[in-house]
Design goal:
460 residues, alpha/beta, OB fold (Dihydrolipoamide Acetyltransferase, E2P), 12 helices, 20 strands, globular
Length: 460
Amino acid sequence: MFTSSSIFLPGYLCQLDDDAVLHSKEKVNSAAEDLFTIGISKEHIHTLPCLTDNEAIDYRCSCTFQILSKDSNNGEIELQYAMRSAKNAILLGGDHFPIATPRIQQIMKHVLKELNGRYACSENNKAIKYPLLRSDLSSVSFASSWNNDMDCIATFNYCSPIHANQGTKEELLKEANDFCRDCNITTLILRSKKMKEIAGRLPPYIDDVLHLKPQADGAMKVALGEGDKSSISIFYHKPEDAFQHPNGNTMLQALGWIMTKLHSIERKRSENKKDFRLLEMYCGCGAHTIPIAKCAIFDSIVAVELDQRLVIACQDNCIKNGCSPQANNCKGDKEDVTPVYSFQGDAGEWAAKSLLRRTKGLVASSNTTTCINKASKSYWYGQDFNVLLVDPPRMGLSQEVRSLAINGSFEHMIYVSCGRVALKADLDALKVAFDVVDCTITDLFPRTDSVESLVHLQRR
C-alpha cells in the first residue's frame, strides 16, 4: 500500500494511508444502489472500482494549489503548497501531490525547489533565484497530458498586477523562460487581473496520443502512447484553458466502453438501413468524437459543443486525424473514416430548434445534400439520427435535450455522466421511451465521492 504520513489530502475522503480499494468499492456500489430505486435491474448494472491502491494515485491531470509563505528553520521565508478545505487553506505537507500524474508531481517538486532557491550574492548574503516570479504569487495550477511523458503546463496566478512589482516585461519573461527550462515545463503562463504573459511553447496547448485495437470478442481496447501496425492512432490537440477529462484512466475506460457499445449497435442494425448517423452533444475537443469517426462506425457524425475554444479544438483535431468533411470531400460515405460536422451551440437550444423543425416539417431533404448545406447548422436541425451520445456537465440534461431524446428518431442513447443525482433524474424521465440495457459505473476521482456512469439506453 502506498503510504505517506507527511502528506495530507485536504478535501479527500480517503487519505493515503486508508484502504483506497475498499473506499472505491463502497462508493461505486452506493451509486449502483441509487439506480435500483428507479427500477433499473441489478443485472444491467456493473461496477468498475479500483482493484489496487496504486490505481488511486498518479491519475489527476489537472490540479490547483494555493501558495503560502512559512518561516523555515534557517530564518528564510519559504513558499509551500496548500489546498482549500471548508474555506480554509491547509498545507499539503510536501512538495508534490500523489494524486496527480507523475509528470505533474515531478514538475511540482522542481517548481517549489526553484522558487525557494537562493544563490550566494556576497560572502554573507544569499539572493532569491527567481525574485520576479516569486513576488505576490498566490496560487499555481498544473495541467498535463494523459500520457506521462508528454506535456505539462503551469499557470502562476498573482494577487497584484503583473509588472507592478515584477520589474519590466522583458525581465519577467527572461525569468519565466529560464524557469521553464530549469523545471522542464512545456509552457508557463503568468496571470493577474486582466493581464497575461506566456513563456515556453506558444500557443499553450496539450498534446496526447492514444490507440485503439479491436479485440476478437468485439470489444475495443484503448491505450495511451503509440500503437502497433494493427491499431488505430488518435491524436489530440487540447487548449490549456478549456475542459479536458481530468483522469486519463477513466477516460480510457469510458472510451473503450463507448466504442464497444457502438460496434455492437452497428453489427445488429438492419443491413438495408442507410445514413447511419450519430448526434453527439457536449463533444468537447472531440475526445470521443475522433475515435468513433476513425473507426467508421457511422456514415456521418454531428458534434455540438457550447465552448467555442473546444469547438475550434474539435475541428482542428478532425483535420489532424483526417475526419473533417473536407478530408472526406463532403461525401458523407462511410469509408475509412466518418466525416464530422462540428458546431458551436447550446445543447438545449439545438434540441428545441430540432423539435420545432420536426414538428413543422421543415427538415432539409437529404436528396438535395451539398457540401454547403451540410456545413450549416440549419441543415442538421431536425434530421434523423440513429444514436444520441451525451456527456453533459454535472447538472445533467436540460428539459429540451430530454424531449429531443424521447421524441426524436434515436434508436439508442449513450449517456456519460459525472453527476449521480442528475443522472438518476434523467434516467427516470427517459424511461417513458427507453430501457437501460447496460450501466457501468467507474471511479472518476479515486479517494473522493465522484463516480462516472456509462449508460446504454435502447428505445422500446
